[in-house]
Amino acid sequence: MSAIAESRDTAPERPSAVAAALKAVPGHLRTAASNVLPPLVALAILVGIWQVLCMSPGASLPPPTKVVADTWELIVNPFFDNGGTDKGLFWHLAASLKRVAIGFSLSAVVGILLGVLIGQSSAAYRGLDPIFQVLRTVPPLAWLPISLAAFRHADPSAIFVIFITAVWPVILNTAVGIRQIPQDYRNVAKVLRLTGPEFFFKIMLPATVPYMFTGLRIGVGLSWLAIVAAEMLIGGVGIGFFIWDAWNSSLMSEIILALVYVGIVGFILDRLIGFAAARVSGPKVRA
Amino acid sequence: MSNHAYLSLENVGMEFNRGNQRSVVLQDVALKIDRGEFISIIGHSGCGKSTVLNIVAGLLRCTRGGVLLENREVDSPGPDRAVVFQNHSLLPWLTVYDNVRLAVDKVFGKTKSRAERDEWTLHNLSLVHMDHAVRKYPEEISGGMKQRVGIARALAMEPKVLLMDEPFGALDALTRAHLQDSLMEIHLKLGNTVIMITHDVDEAVLLSDRIVMMTNGPAATIGEVLEVPLKRPRRRLELTEDPTYTRCRGEVIRFLYERHRHAEAA
Question: Nearest 5°: CA angle at B226, between B222 and B232?
Answer without folding.
Answer: 135
